[in-house]
Amino acid sequence: MSAISADEVITAGLAAGLDAVGIAPADPFESTRATLVDRREQGLHGGMAFTYRNPDRSTDPGRTVGGARSLVVGALGYRRAASARPDRAVGRVAAYARRDHYAELRDALSQVADLLHGAGHNAAVVADDNALVDREAANRAGLGWYGKNSNILLPGKGSWFVLGTVITTAELDPSTPVPDQCGPCRRCLDGCPTGAIVAPGVVDARRCLAWLVQADGDFPLEFREALGDRIYGCDDCQEVCPPNRLAESDQTRAATGDGDREDDTPWVDLVELLQLDDDELMARYGRWYIPKRDPRYVRRNALVALGNSGRGTDPEVAGTVHRYQSASDPMLVRHADWAASRLGITAAEAV
After folding, report:
1. Assessment of whether the complete model's pTM goes beyond 0.85
2. What is the tens place of the pLDDT at every residue in 288-340?
3. Of the residues 87, 100, 114, 128, which is catalytic?
4. Residue 315 contacts by C-beta under 8 Å, 6 or more apart in sequence?
5. CB atoms within 10 A of CB 171
6. Which residues make Cβ contacts (< 8 Å) with residue 21, sequence separation at least 6?
7. Separation of first and last alpha carbons in the chain
8. Is 38 a catalytic residue?
9. What residue spans define the domains of the chain?
10. What CATH number has the domain spanning 6-78+98-168?
């Protein structure tokens, strides 16, 4: 085993493409565990499993890597300029889900893990799974502070980042924590379209559009209009955040080149999506969190977004809605009926 310093590890992470890297001790997140248990008992998780499934595991890095001493936490920016909205019925995809940013994050973190392995230490990458509460790791590693929308805000850079961690047996000097910088601002609370941020740092998943598009069952009737054109995710609480707005010109990648990649999907043609068979739909959008890996839930979201499109006079829209009103799936029929009512489509007009 050879000596390795925190500076070497941080430098390696930045060289691998991470936008920020910090280090924290691998002590259990006791306060976070208590919070997860409490909010689950209150029902605020809305049935979300993820880190709520096993708080004892997701708040203890030692459960993933025995003898863990340090956490190397990385942030990778994903905010990119979106292409102009097409002039047709389209669904909007949240910035973090437009392509697989986590694959890029894991690749960068793996390079850090390789460095640690080379020095004789055990190391494992965890990102976007239920093994660790990445936001708490990032907070402890000095990457940023908790915003009132519960996202981590990086000083001068905002919150448009995916987060991941390398859990390692190496003992590394920790980074300095970042103090809260939100002050009295409450724009995220006031800007949430469903009032899901019920208190600073407390999100009720039962009202959060970003979770509801991933939940099973019918999309809640009371939030269908609020969903608007969203088909996956919701960025509203980040878009109104002052640190994000200030950092946007620096953080947003130019639309030419990086923002125009073929796998970048800010807009989804709703009529086209609703024509895809199961295999085609999952091939395109299967990297999203889809309840039970069942494509009918993507169609459910698309029907709600179509109902909010205001394009009831478009023959393709009307025909698509009518076709789903005659579907064999009762859930999709219910959502198609709602869309028809919302768009003012009668049976005669839809044929």
Report:
1. yes
2. 999 999 999 999 999 999 999 999 999 999 999 999 999 999 999 999 999 99
3. 128
4. none
5. 13
6. 9, 10, 13, 14, 72, 73, 74, 75, 112, 143
7. 73
8. no
9. 6-78+98-168
10. 3.40.109
